[in-house]
Specification:
The protein is of the alpha/beta class. The protein has seven helices and eight strands. The protein folds into two domains: about 100 residues, no CATH class; about 160 residues, Pectate Lyase C-like (3 Solenoid). Strands 2-4-5-6-7-8 form a six-stranded parallel β-sheet. The protein is elongated.
Amino acid sequence: MAKVQKRTGPIKGNDGKSLKERIINHRAIVLLTLACGGLAAIATAIGNIEQISRYISGTPPEISEIIKNLASESIQLRIKGANDAGSLGNAPSKTLDTALQVLTATIQQRSNDPATQMPGDVEAALKSISKLLKAADTRSLKVVFPEFQGLNYFFADMHGLYLRGITIRESSLEDANLDGANLTDAKLQNVTLSRAKFQTAILSSAEIYSSCLENADFRKATLISTAVESSDLNGANFEEATLEGSKFTNSRLAYASFKEAGLRKADFGSALNLTNAQLESGRQRQDVIWPEEQNRISRLTTCKE
């Protein structure tokens, strides 16, 4: 009888790839397809692939369960998978990144026009994204920040959410509640946020471009080194907010209140419809760049008349 030679390395196919490599590559294709929204066919097959990978590639069972839930046609199960990924202390960055992509695609698929009240599953998905982003930052993991376009909801409740680095374009979120939210490094472009609440929110290093924030409430908010350009903030309330180093370029600020706001090094040089008297009610006015032309009128049309 021929002696069976004991293998010491991984089993390899004709192409030189081990079974472990095949599984990992297969899963990568699965996850990429998931992020693009093709969920149905893969959800059936992913169970067998992941079951094998537990023994060969060492994938923990909890990660496998997360991936199966992210592959589900059920929005609730996708959210559960994402929440579990955010709670798992040893989840790799790829798992968190995939969960973010799946939820971003899920929310984007639910985008609508005209605006409606935000559905409960979209609200839950945003809360899950908040959890994932916070987990990634806590562990210093690199992830791709969510980008949204065409989100049209009124009275959206996003208070207290951790949304660092997100991008929102061409959207309408009138009367949104973002009190206490963290929007550091966020990008808002062509977004309507009239009467939105940003009390105690953090918008440091955020970029706000061509957006409507009439009568928005920024009381006690933190806007350090925030860039605001070609936007309408008529009637906005910045009382006791911190605006240190922020720049308002070609943006309207008629009737905006800066009472007790920290204005150190803030740049209002090209601000529109703004008077020195409005800024004089602020504090820490060292090195403030005052409006070059008092109450300069503009033709901005970022807000619907």
